[in-house]
Amino acid sequence: MIERTLVLLKPDAVQRGLMGEIIMRFERAGLKVVGCKMVWVDKEFSKKHYAEHVEKPFYKGLEAVITHGPVLAMCIEGIEAIATVRKMVGSTEPKGSLPGTIRGDYAHVSYGYADQKGIGIKNLIHASAHADDAAREVGLWFADDELHSYKTVHDVHILE
Ligand code: IDP
Ligand code: MG
User: Considering only Cβ atoms within 10 Å of each terminal Cβ, which end of the chain, N or C, has fewer?
Assistant: First the structure.
């Protein structure tokens, strides 16, 4: 039941100086960062990562947002980490994301506003949606030798 999931701190999170705040939340929950790097993706890579969305009307804005600057890519490990991380991230539209979630606490933009402006929605973070996505996305972003197995103090509590 120990899972690995892909988390991206999108360019808006990096540019707003929120990397530390967001990583702290995952660490505080006992989740383990097993891979971490900064990457500035191009349009081609964006299309690979967001393959399921390429044909959707919002894709152009999404691509502009994700290629606007470097992202912090992380592989995060923990017990049922995929669902736990999604819970912490919150729902896609920050306007509706609950307080206590990353999108709800650090953003508030709505689809309506972004559409009116003709821009992508800045919602700070990406997290893999389910096990198949997590496996595909971790493989897309990280080479095997960029992922590390090590013990944290939380492992004491997981094992006993
Ligand atoms: P998720 O990031 O919460 O998993 P997805 O539906 O997988 O949401 O969409 C990927 C990204 O595309 C979202 O994080 C958001 O940036 C953008 N997006 C999704 N739906 C819309 C929309 O209806 N309008 C504008 N942007 C959207
Ligand atoms: Mg998604």
Answer: C
Q: Which pair of structure tokens corresponds to residue 128?
A: 């893999």
The ligand whose atoms approach the alpha carbon of 134 most closely is 2
Structure tokens at 23: 């990583």
Find the radius of gyration of the CA atoms of the chain. 16
Instruction: State the pTM of this model.
Output: 0.97
CB 53 within 8 A of CB 59: yes
Architecture label for domain 2-144: 2-Layer Sandwich (3.30)
Residue 78, beta-bridge partner list: 3
The model's pLDDT over 33-49, given as tens digits with 9 standing for 90+, comes to 999 999 999 999 999 99
How many CB atoms within 10 Å of residue 53?
Answer: 14
Domain extent listing, the chain = 2-144
